[in-house]
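Can anyone check this?
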Amino acid sequence: MTWSGNINSRRALPAFVLALGLLAGCGVLPGGGPPAKMFTLTPKNTFDEQLPAVDWQLVVEEPSAAGGLQVQSIALRTRAIELQYFAGARWTERAPRMIQTLLVESFENSGKIVAVGRQTIGLRSDFNLKTELREFQAEYGNPNQPPMVHVRLSALLIQQPRREIIASENFDAKVAAASTSMEDVILAFDDALGKVIRRTVEWSLTTGAGAYRPR
């Protein structure tokens, strides 16, 4: 079954807000059609002004996720037991990799941390942020009604070098799209993920500041 989303043409769209409808099934587009549109979301750059400035280093690990979310396809649900994908649309990279990038950029944008990066840059971290992506999809109760975008991230803050778990937390956000248009669905993804990222950054900095002991 294929659903179509209406694109609002009355105003210019941001670069990350265009797509072409919905496709049930495995998320692999049939050949012969136009190339898929590529989308990304935005990092956070506003945080609680009372956040502590920290002098330790953080590695943000790539989030783990179930197979259905370890893809570039943009996920949706019409019922709890079935995961489907938007047709004609992709994230610019696999969802966990994209979220890792946005987390790193958001930590940098906070201006409160000495150094933050991925495992691959060889950073000698004081803490690692290990996360699991539990929910990252648009949920449709009715195909003719706007969906609810649901994002949930489970986080562990791990102190190095002994890999001691300092704290764990879950971050969850649901944002209703303003309409069934693809523009509004992607904006809802950006809003919901932004809420989760902001809370993850603030929790990590605050928790790490209280637990940090120089080596």
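Reply from J.R.: I decoded it. The first strand starts at residue 2 and ends at 3.
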